[in-house]
């Protein structure tokens, strides 16, 4: 009960670093394999720590290990607040019923107070330095320097985990941007920031700005390249590559934003349109791993796209298949789905559910996505049949008959399956619609509907013509008179 | 004002002659001669002059002007409501058919003047039955006064019911057709509703209002609202839901820059009627005043609608919690009916999902414990052919598709209606294209483009002249 409540809270908390919310715990065993080292090795920097903290909080069985790893990554950064975040995440798990047997924090990691102090001092010093610099720049009114000052301060705040100030400085730097390249840089910094922060609703507006700046930059670069007649070939090409890189980053940001807002269909097509991993540059590892892209894209596609669309956009997509290589089970998943082996599909989904749940971007959507995939699977399975025993469906999906009946009934009620359930004999029968009769009934109904609508509209028109409209009672008499007067004058003029 | 409650078996003449005796109204007698010298060319302001004006053969329009203007308003009313100098009732002198307009003035004045001589209901009824509509249409304001007076008169005579018949006569004879809205409509329906004589209103309600003519009746927007609201009340009292729905919708969606309180009430009732009739609500047309749905969302009705029909316990809870409000807004009856019908809609939904289902499952879906209740409910629904199903002895219900009932005559009827409608629209469009308003607008549009022409010489001139051409063709 309590767990449910907290889970429903999570989407409302735009991913805080201090991720102390306790999630439903995820088991890690033979049925749900999860290799922490392999998983975390594809991430660097802050996101690695964020993910480790998340794992600490949700998987009691590997919490100590995750905490240790988190600390090793953490010492490479300069945000001392992560220490307490990690520890409190661990303590939360340790205090929960599943984590009773966990060793206390002190046994797992030793908090180096010296490091914290050192980092704090260093941060303080840098902050003072940057702020003084910015002040002098502002006094001297050098636009470019002020922009860089703001940018540096933004970077600094981001590194120390003060997202609000970072955002403030980044956006402030915009006022001092003189070229579209600068605006682009600013937008990309902000995008990194909001993705790290998991503030999905904000992403799209910065993408728009960045795209505008990108177009402007390309337009500027174009003529400049042709004017400099010397290296005809290489000059336009280089901005082209850069442009593609930035565009890829923007696409990824857009895809994440759609995913974060639960818009799976758009997320799927955005993910499937991504360029190769090299184009994403340092975002791979810093924000997401290539395996993540494969998982996000495939799950969204399976949940929302039609079979033919999956075939065309996913299987026939050579760029995306490179991503899939990173996570071999995804290939199996697609294979199983496309060959209508839904039992295996669902088994694979549940087998890797831990991997999906601990992901910071995907976590909250796993349930939804799984439900979507189940629904499409049932619909696809039933399509060729006229009648089918629910038992057979149960075997095909690996569920109990009651479960199948419940799912099927919900789908019928939502209009996804055209059929009816024989609940006594446990048979699902397809509806045989009498199109002719339906058409007739529809035509008759529409005729009478349109007639009455027509009548109502005509009356309405007449009322308006006669000026019998509801008016504000206060201004009523006077305005009536005024209108009457006007009408009288108009009549007089006409005659 | 005093009422004479003699059982008037005697003839009208007698009664009228009796009246003047206890009714020597000094005020009237004095005021009439006192005012007399002040107005010159029209002669004396006295009832006898009025009567003589009425009786000489004068075109009704002229007579109407005279009756309207022979004296200032309050004096006029008092004079009209008075008796002849010799104590004779002027109505006795006049003939209903020949002097409709004059009698209309006198009767309506008497109804609304305190201390006026008594007006025998029989006479008024007779008048409503026999008056000449063409004459009465010259004085729509007096007809309104007459209609307003009828319920008052009936109440004075002891029962509001008495007003229904004369109002009906008046209403069915006065307008050129029953599809004209008049001021009598709302008064008649209000009377029907408040006396609970719902079926008396049906002949009138059967003709949908399509024409508004303010020359025939001095309408106010409230007349339209009240008429359709009361029509909805009548139909919902008679459980003719689809008609009720239409009337409430017309009331709720009437045009206006502001929203009237009665429209809000109509919307509430509309939604409830929809729940009873269809088991769900259909969103109101887009042209409804946006304030209304917004206000509606904050009422308990909105909660009720959202919970309908599945969550029966919650529905009960809402009804119990807001009982006072519903009772105060006089919607408790509809609410209870909707609540009673909730299980039926749930069962209807089940028929679309299941082929067979045990009674106990249905009971669970409906939210009751007893299978017997469900059994009788389903039997009732089968009997009224709401669902087509079979009930076997072991308590299994077999649902089947409802048989399709379509006959050639139905199709033909619908087609004929559609053609009629098409012709009507065609006619309306032509009328509109001829109308003064439209032409003024069109001409204005032309002038504007002509202005553009002078600004931008060669191009504009050409467009201006081509527009002229087009218009000339249009006029020819």
From TrEMBL, chain A:
InterPro entries recorded: PCI_dom, Rpn7/CSN1, Rpn7_N, WH_DNA-bd_sf
Region: Disordered, residue numbers: 219-239
Pfam family, one: PCI
Entry GO CC: COP9 signalosome; cytoplasm
Gene3D superfamilies listed in its UniProt record: 1.25.40.570
UniProt cross-references to PROSITE patterns, sorted A to Z: PCI
Main localization category: cytoplasm
Residue ranges occupied by any PCI domain in the UniProt entry: 248-435
Transmembrane segments: none
Keywords in alphabetical order: Cytoplasm, Nucleus, Signalosome
Database matches in SMART domains: PINT
Subcellular locations according to the entry: Cytoplasm; Nucleus
PANTHER family, alphabetized: 26S PROTESOME SUBUNIT 6, COP9 SIGNALOSOME COMPLEX SUBUNIT 1
Similarity section: Belongs to the CSN1 family.
Protein known as: PCI domain-containing protein
Annotated organism of origin: Paxillus rubicundulus Ve08.2h10
Lineage: Eukaryota, Fungi, Dikarya, Basidiomycota, Agaricomycotina
Automatic annotation (TrEMBL), chain B:
Major subcellular location class: cytoplasm
PANTHER family assigned to the protein according to its UniProt record, in alphabetical order: 26S PROTEASOME NON-ATPASE REGULATORY SUBUNIT 3/COP9 SIGNALOSOME COMPLEX SUBUNIT 3 (PTHR10758), COP9 SIGNALOSOME COMPLEX SUBUNIT 3 (PTHR10758:SF1)
GO cellular component: COP9 signalosome; cytoplasm
Bias-annotated ranges (Low complexity): 1-31
Pfam families assigned: COP9_hel_rpt, PCI
Ranges of Polar residues composition bias in the record: 32-43
Region (Disordered): 1-43
Domain COP9 signalosome complex subunit 3 N-terminal helical repeats residues, every copy: 81-291
GO biological process: ubiquitin-dependent protein catabolic process
Subcellular location: Cytoplasm; Nucleus
Domain PCI: 322-400
Keywords for the protein's UniProt record, in alphabetical order: Cytoplasm, Nucleus, Signalosome
Annotated TM spans: none
Family: Belongs to the CSN3 family.
Protein name: COP9 signalosome complex subunit 3
